[in-house]
Design brief:
By secondary structure, this protein is of the alpha+beta class. The chain contains eleven helices and 17 strands. It has one domain (2-254, 289-383): Chorismate synthase, AroC fold (4-Layer Sandwich). The chain is 31% helix and 20% strand. Bound molecules: flavin mononucleotide (FMN) and ligand EPS. Flavin mononucleotide (FMN) binds next to helix 10. This reaction introduces a second double bond into the aromatic ring system. Belongs to the chorismate synthase family. FMN binds at residues 128-130, 246-247, 292, 307-311, 333.
Length: 384
């Protein structure tokens, strides 16, 4: 499968085209919109999220609630565009240049993007670098998650750290409702309050905060991805999708970094004969569900570090790219922290990688065909 996204942060809309979905997949707008709404949430987001009420329009590839096998086009309107029509107009004229942004923000795409694409109004850079684009990837990911759910695979994201405050890392699938009920997506009420206080303080100080999110999937059949060639390894493909997300600066699978500190006997997950004498089971999951670039049937566990937002109200020193004089970095309207939202984005982009790996391994032009093949592979693994 493949997809492309297009659209600027303050342009009229975001567009995504997905190609390669099987036919007969039940798909409604209602399968996509709740995830878009979740991505907008989280304590610490800026005023833009009050303006937008993201919803997807399905413009092709679906009839009567089922995919046809043709490319699926998704459109999400930018409600804020009405305030930016002159500035974002594709027509020539003086108006679009009036609000030129020239004080490059350290940590954002501004300076290098300006040099690379020869822009002196850095708005031409930030409009596409902006994480507004993640709306389109979440819409695409929601479709991928729908496909996975038909195969009995689902996932969740939650926050384990925000701006110096740790939340409980332990997780049980029975606590899903608790995660969804928290606007910081944490399981620990005490930590949640301290995170909230930290965000309030950062906002007062004109500063920003980052954090760590964990994403888990369950129900994955063994053997997605492959060890036979580097670019087919699923851990690499997941890491690329995670690192390809705005502001993500670190990724870990299972107990990744901790593994470097302890002996192998404390790292690797011993294998035992499965329940009733069939199949296999493990009692630990340090591998995070991946061995040699393949799913091993255990839960997939991915952790990602988000840096603090680059736009600071207490500006960092920079240089004006037109006057070439020292300046304070531009103050754009911005989030103070967007860690829970990043978790939703990562849930979506990992969902895409998994759905893509499912289609690659099992193929099938229609969902019933795909289901038969997945079922056969699960049964084979059970009796291997
Ligand atoms: C959900 C989400 C919201 C974000 N909101 C902002 C924001 O309001 N202001 C900002 O400067 N950066 C924000 N970012 C991060 C920037 O888009 C990102 O730092 C920038 O594009 C530079 O890319 P890099 O951090 O990956 O190097 C956000 C990122 C995510 C994932
Ligand atoms: C629009 C979104 O996030 C934006 C991401 C972003 C950035 O620089 O990445 C900057 C801000 O844009 P604006 O100046 O329009 O408020 C965020 O609001 C969104 O998440 O939908």
């Amino acid at each position: 499968m493949r997809f492309l996204t297009a659209g600027e942060s303050h342009g009229p809309q975001l567009t995504a085209i997905i190609e390669g979905l099987p036919s007969q997949l039940p798909l409604l707008k209602a399968d996509i919109d709740p995830m878009l709404r979740k991505r907008q949430g989280g304590y610490g987001r800026g005023r833009r999220m009050v303006i937008e009420t993201d919803e997807a329009q399905i413009m092709s590839g679906v009839r009567a609630g089922r995919t046809t096998g043709a490319p699926v086009t998704l459109v999400i309107e930018n409600k804020d565009h009405r305030n930016w029509t002159e500035i974002m107009s594709p027509e020539e004229g003086g108006e679009p240049r009036k609000k030129a942004l020239t004080e490059a923000r350290p940590g954002h795409a501004d300076l290098t993007g300006g040099i690379k694409y020869r822009h002196k109004d850095l708005r031409d850079v930030l409009e596409r670098a902006s994480a507004r684009e993640t709306t389109a990837r979440v819409a695409v990911g929601a479709v991928a998650l729908k496909l996975l759910s038909e195969l009995g695979i689902d996932g969740v994201s939650y926050v384990t750290h925000l701006g110096g405050v740790d939340a409980l890392g332990t997780f049980g699938w029975d606590r899903l409702d608790e995660i969804e009920a928290s606007d910081l997506r944490v399981l620990d009420k005490d930590a949640e309050q301290r995170m909230r206080d930290g965000i309030d303080q950062a906002k007062k100080d004109g500063d920003t905060l980052g954090g760590i999110v964990e994403i888990r999937f369950r129900g994955l059949p063994p053997g997605l991805g492959s060890y036979v060639h580097w670019d087919r390894k699923l851990d690499g493909r997941i890491a690329a999708a995670v690192m390809g997300t705005q502001a993500i600066k670190g990724v870990e699978i299972g107990t990744g970094f901790e593994n470097a500190r302890v002996p192998g006997s404390k790292v690797h997950d011993a294998v035992y004969v499965g329940e009733g004498g069939h199949g296999y089971r493990r009692e630990t999951n340090g591998a995070g569900g991946l061995e040699a670039g393949m799913t091993n049937g255990e839960d997939l566990i991915v952790r990602a570090a988000m840096k603090p937002i680059a736009t600071l109200m207490k500006s960092l020193p920079t240089v004006d790219v037109v006057s070439h004089q020292p300046a304070d970095a531009a103050k754009e309207r911005s989030d103070t922290s967007a860690v829970p939202a990043a978790g939703i984005v990562l849930h979506a982009v990992i969902g895409w990688v998994l759905a893509d790996a499912v289609m690659e391994r099992f193929g099938g032009d229609s969902l019933p065909e795909l289901l038969e093949r997945v079922q056969a592979a699960r049964s084979y693994a059970q009796h291997y």
